[in-house]
Amino acid sequence: MDGERVDQAACGHLFEVFALLGKRWNGLILGTLLDGPARFSELERIIPGIRGPMLSRRLAELAEVGLVERHVETGPPVEVYYRLTIAGEGLRRSVHELSRWGETFLGPSARSH
User: Fold this and answer.
1) Does the residue 2 lie in any domain?
2) pLDDT at 1 over 70
3) Percentages helix, strand, coil for the chain, rounded to the nearest 5?
C-alpha cells in the first residue's frame, strides 16, 4: 500500500460502520437509546449540544438504516418515542467496549499510558 489512500474494499464493512457511527451525534444517540426508549424532548435534554432539527435528521437517518424506530402510542395523550431495533441493540457490546476504550486511552488516566 502506498500510504496515500486506504482502499475502501480492503476495509470491508468497517468503512461503512465508521461512516455511519462516526457521524457527529449518531453514536451518542445510539448510546443514549441503549438505556431504553426515549421521547424526542428527552433525547434533546440528555445529549448536550444537539438541537432539534439536527436530532430529527439523525433519528431519520438511523431509522432509515434500521437501527432506530419511531414508535407512536395512540393516547390520549399521543406519545411518540424512539427505541433501538434488534440491529441497534446488536451494537450494545461494541458501544460498551468503545466506551471502555475511551476511558482507558482518552480519559485522564490515559496520560499515564
Assistant:
1) no
2) no
3) 55, 10, 35
Which CATH number covers residue 21?
Answer: 1.10.10.10
38-53 pLDDT, tens digit per residue, is 999 999 999 999 999 9
Distance CA 52, CA 33 (A): 16
CA distance 45 to 37: 14
Q: Binning pLDDT at 50, 70 and 90, where does residue 13 land?
A: confident
Q: Would you mind telling me the total number of residues written for the chain in this entry? A: 113
More confident residue, 8 or 33: 33
Q: Which residues contact 87 (CB under 8 A, 6 or more apart)?
A: 66, 67
Region 83-92: mean pLDDT is 98
d(CA 63, CA 66): 5
Lookup: cell for 84: 433501538
